[in-house]
Amino acid sequence: MLGDVLEEIKEDLNYIYSNINSNLSIKAGQIGDYAHLELSSLDKCLRPAVVLLVGRLYNCKSPKLLSLGAIIQYIFMASRIHQNIPETRQTQEVDPRDGTQFPVLIGDYLYGKFFTTLCDAEILHLLRPLAEIIGRIHEGGILDRTNLHRKEDNHQLAAEIIKLETAELFAGAARLAGELAEAPEEDLQLLYEFGLNIGMGYGLKEKTGLSVKYFQQALMILEKLPNCPDKVMLENLVRVLQINDIRMVV
């Protein structure tokens, strides 16, 4: 199970989420009162876990990795809220989370927390690649909403949407973690491809529940990365995603 795979980084994951939770309360109350923030156990930890485990490949446990893990999660949470905003405002809505205005504001609030975390950790050099990832995520959202009736019959289009909306953030998480860990230049592209394949597999399996080729490709790429005792945790993480129905993993 996922909990067993991540046991060695449980303390760091708890630290990341404790920091995130401390920012989920605003003067108006809990931000979950104004936007849907319900996440599966997997979505609460998977992206930060990729950051931490890639760092361990290069024997790096820098506090900057903890900050990057939080930043990646803020981006995911903000984009997920924005993706779920309905096209039109319901005139009879009772719950503000089901409207449009409050979720937009909460998503923007979380993007702001990504930026302040970046500043506090003094890793502003990551701003440009992270901003480019956010742009791709929203490009995917536009592509998705303008092709609602085409993507079911167009597998290439559906895959491109998943790449933009889901996989690019995983790819960035892995590559930027490698950069903070001072991975060799030749490894950074491999880390990007590793994360991209995890993201493609995760996104497709999340929508269909079916096993796909991308997790196997991620394992093949992982073989080219440094051998160290912590590498087995990344391998086991991929295998958990590959074997289990990720919609039910806890």
From TrEMBL:
GO terms for biological process: isoprenoid biosynthetic process. The keyword Magnesium applies. Its cofactor is Mg(2+). One of its GO terms (molecular function) is metal ion binding. Pfam families: polyprenyl_synt. Keywords: Magnesium, Metal-binding, Transferase. Belongs to the FPP/GGPP synthase family. This is Polyprenyl synthetase. It comes from Desulforamulus ferrireducens.
